[in-house]
Design a protein that fits this description.
- The protein is mainly α and about 120 residues long.
- It is about 75% helix and about 0% strand.
- It has 4 helices and no strands.
- It is globular.
- About 30% of the residues are buried.
Length: about 120
């Protein structure tokens, strides 16, 4: 079976998550406050888990374009907004974080519903 193009992008996303974790551990630790580092860590963990989940999701036909778009788009919005907040972005940037979270939850719920329909 041939890997879908999204799989390569997800592998790059995982590599980026590792690099961002290392960046925080080695370069940001001395520059950011503990709460900012915790925010960065949250962004990095969610980025990692969503990419891993999507890689697993690709094995199912129920993982259609809507599911992938919600999860990947939500992950980008959620994590990017938290990275920005950790680096000192204006507070309104944090207001879009929950939108990313809701998109991720919506994508996983849609996948669950579609998998149940296939069963």
């Amino acid at each position: 079976m041939r890997a879908p193009p999204l799989a390569a992008w997800l592998a790059l996303d995982l590599a980026l998550a590792v690099l961002l974790g290392a960046f925080a551990a080695h370069l940001l630790r001395a520059r950011l406050s503990v709460p900012a580092l915790a925010t960065w860590d949250t962004a990095q963990r969610y980025q990692t888990w969503q990419a891993l989940g999507l890689l697993a999701c690709l094995r199912f036909t129920a993982c259609d374009r809507r599911v992938r778009s919600l999860i990947l788009g939500g992950s980008v919005v959620f994590s990017a907004s938290l990275y920005a907040v950790a680096l000192g972005a204006a507070k309104p940037v944090a207001w879009i974080t929950p939108l990313g979270g809701m998109a991720m939850v919506g994508g996983w719920l849609l996948l669950a519903w579609q998998l149940r329909q296939e069963a």
